[in-house]
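Record now logged for everyone:
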Amino acid sequence: FALPFVGLFWRAPWSRAWEILRSTDLVEPLRLSLVTSLAATSIAAVLGIPLAWVLARHGFPGRSLIRALCTLSMVLPPVVGGVALFFALGRRGIVGQWLDRWWGITFPFTTNAVIIAQAFVAMPFLVITVEAAFRQLDHRYEDAARTLGAGNWYAFRRVTLPTIRPA
């Protein structure tokens, strides 16, 4: 696991490190990586936390199927995941053709495509982790907040989310 990093540090041009770090050839890709990863994390959190809550708290027909679909991108090879995203959101994809035709929105080879792909890969890890945290949470804290007059949203926002934050 560590061997690639050892090789990277071994072959790095340390005498020119500061010059390389300040060059625009490096700054722009780092900025793009930071922007896309923060956007993908936000999307995964906005969609994944409610999904994890539903999967942890409610039993309904098809729950295991939804959980399986959520974790599918974890086990797909990256190329298959990319092809699946392309078939869904490409210019001739299931959804992409309509986005292109109706609103002129295209995803392939754009920054938004990178964000979607990153969220596609990251979301299952978030959902599994947060779902486990919701399952382990002692419901008595939320019940106590509700008996003191807190509504469901207030109890979720001020009691549940801070309690599972470490997850």
Summary: The first helix runs from residue 3 to 11. The two ends are 25 Å apart (CA to CA).
